[in-house]
Design brief:
Elements lengths: L6 E5 L3 E8 L3 H9 L1 H4 L9 E8 L6 E8 L5 E12 L3 E8 L8 E10 L2 E9 L3 H9 L2 H23 L1
Antiparallel strand pairs: 1-2, 2-8, 3-4, 4-5, 5-6, 6-7, 7-8
Length: about 160
């Protein structure tokens, strides 16, 4: 049995590495991370939130912007960034900054999509501006939010696969 649980590790002084295996082929998982209509179905953390704005210009130099909303009280959180490197469906490198910045500035995010036996391992490395910024993120509810989103994605990947046939 494959352990598909999200794994998060603090690496060196400023990085966090997140990894999760998905039971789907690499091109579908890559699409789920890069196509707005697919992202809106799973990329919103815990239940009770939604991804209200999802703008993606998927090209080197292209920008993205996300706005999440907590449905109960209208609280919003937003971030954006610029794609720096793109090798579909294998690798994405982009910058990222929250508009109400709580991570002490821009981060550099590298996401790898590695296929193996019909599954895809997604590994995301986030480089923060300081150890303090990294540690603040580790103490936040980020891990539970990412895990909830990834679990939701795992549940709907079969539907996404059926829709793309």
């Amino acid at each position: 049995m494959v352990d598909n649980a999200l794994k998060i590790s603090a690496m060196n002084d400023c990085e966090i590495v997140m990894s999760r295996v998905f039971n789907a082929e690499q091109p579908l998982v890559f699409a789920a991370f890069t196509e707005p209509k697919l992202l809106k179905r799973w990329f919103f953390g815990p239940d009770g939130w939604s991804l209200k704005v999802c703008e993606i210009d998927l090209k080197v130099g292209g920008a993205f912007r996300y706005v999440w909303r907590k449905d109960a009280d209208g609280t919003e959180m937003s971030m954006g960034g610029v794609y720096r490197e793109l090798e579909a469906p294998r690798r994405i490198v982009h910058t990222e900054v929250f508009e109400m910045d709580w991570t002490c500035g821009e981060t550099r995010v590298t996401t790898l999509f590695v296929p193996q036996d019909g599954r895809t391992t997604v590994t995301t490395t986030i480089l923060y501006s300081s150890t303090g910024a990294r540690d603040a993120v580790l103490k936040s509810p980020m891990e539970s939010g990412v895990a909830a989103g990834y679990d939701r994605l795992e549940r709907i990947l079969p539907d996404m696969a059926a829709e793309t046939v």
